[in-house]
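--- STAGE predict ---
source: upstream dedup step, 1 unique chain passed
mode: sequence only
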Amino acid sequence: MAEAPVRQNPIDARPWTFYALGALFFAYLLFLYGPMLVIYALSFQGPNGGVTFPIVDPSLDWFRDVWRPGQMANIPVAFWRSMTLAGIVCLLTVLISVAAGLAYRRPFPGSGLVFYLAVSSLVMPSLLVGFGIGLGFQFLGLQADLFTSALGAQLTWTLPFGLLTMFAVVNRFNRSWEEAAADLGATPWQRLRYVTLPILLPGILGVGLSAFTLSYDEYARTTLTIGARNTLPLEIYALISSQTTPMLFALGTLTTAASFLLIGVSLVVLLRLQRRREWMSRRAT
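--- STAGE serialize ---
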């Protein structure tokens, strides 16, 4: 009996496609991360070096300069302002997104209108949104400030993403878990606390992380609503407009390291929650 012919892998038959796709992907990574790698390298420039290569006497002087008081831009104060504002925006975005996600599990009159109004700010240019909020505060005779107008402007940016993410998470939620808890005598609050929220927690953490990062580096919607107290992106823009030193590169390296640290802590928390859930599942069975 004749053996059946062996089918050849299309990639093996045409290896040039594999290498072409690999080269394209490498070029994409280089285009995406190349500027960041340049900034990280130049942040270790020596005190006599400039903002371009070559690196002269590598040192950590510019990292120390970030925290030095008496500069034209007050980086430490602006950093903590951004962190505080981002934390508040993160908390409000999570609370509103979770409440909306749970509310939209049942249809109610005007739900479509409310949804489109909530996400409509995504299609508006960011500068126009900030300009409108600033004009609104001026018309009402209110003072634009960090935790009033700027907070509202940033919520118009973070809330639509939080809502869309939470809707996707809630739509995959199996309500039989809540029904089983109700059959066992759990109250609505107990079902929410011990069943619904723990299962939705990975998605809630994702909403919080995205809201925090979107708020932390937001510039366009903040610049016209911030008042007299600048956030870190505005201070960086002021430095770029007036003077450029490797201190800006050191600042970018530090903020990137802080972002990776936050992501790492969140992944550890998610992993621990996943292991705890698996342990409870094995214990229940």
